[in-house]
Amino acid sequence: SILIIGACGQIGTELTLKLREINGKNSVIASDIREGNKELMKSGPFEFINAMDYNSISNIVDKYAINEIYLMAAMLSATGEKFPEKAWELNMDSLFNVLNLAKEGRVKKIFWPSSIAVFGPTTPKENTPQETIMEPSTVYGISKQTGERWCEYYFNKYGVDVRSIRYPGIISWKANPGGGTTDYAVEIYHKALLIGKYKSFLKKETKLPMMYMDDAIDATIQIMDAEPETIKVRSSYNLSAMSFSPEELALEIKKIVPEFTIKYKEDFRQSIADSWPKSIDDSSARKDWGWNHKYDIVKMSEKMLNNLHSKYKIL
Ligand code: VAH
């Protein structure tokens, strides 16, 4: 069966729900350090796991005969800059725990998310290649770059079947993101419906690679279902669907919420965003295991506003 560590997070929540749809709820164990939202908690089995504690994972692996782990627990870019040591400890200890379970043959397959945060200020910013210079300037990016190196090492040295995707910013409505720099692109939809205005913490022209959650979930399941020999990259695959700036997103929202207004007041997250690429070349993922995105900024905005509209029961 499948274990999701960090099942209550923005991606973990929807990944758990989708995997339960496909595999049956009792063969997908959700776990986190805290409980998740109602929809997640009533959708199937839940266990408390501290991702940094090997034994707490090991016990659950034995209890449910787990053979696949999706490690979705991490401290993201903005919070990582406030608590560097904690971010490094959580992001690295949790990865070593699951890689070692696979190395010992107790788990067959691992999914571990990397991020476009592995790229830094010296990386080419447009159409960033799969292989390129990477000098990440955030603790989160450093931990993801190091994690990629360890994933490739455990694959080459111990035959561990670990697969990874460099997620761009991910936009969703079911569960809130926590502590990211791209989170403005989620908050803006809520604020557009609730108060008709938004103060962006990134400058209007800050273009970043983005993806709607349904595409991210489909890509994650697709790479895990792919035949091993099609996975040519064992560090982590570039992945993206679109790129946009706060100004472009606000324009899209105005088409549906005409009275919406936006202001810009950058904070410390601006320097994080400035260190990242503007657009990503994900041709390797498209070639190796058939990745193809379905959502552009128009389709995403319709989905986000329609779902949030009913979630908030706006009359
Ligand atoms: C963050 N949402 O903002 C995450 C992600 C590329 C962005 O890593 O930190």
Automatic annotation (TrEMBL):
GO MF assignments: L-threonine 3-dehydrogenase activity
Cleaved signal peptide residues: none
Gene3D superfamilies (alphabetical): NAD(P)-binding Rossmann-like Domain
Residue ranges annotated for the NAD-dependent epimerase/dehydratase domain, each copy included: 2-226
GO BP term, pick one: L-threonine catabolic process
Similarity remark: Belongs to the NAD(P)-dependent epimerase/dehydratase family.
Protein name according to UniProt: Nucleoside-diphosphate-sugar epimerase
Record organism: Lutibacter oricola
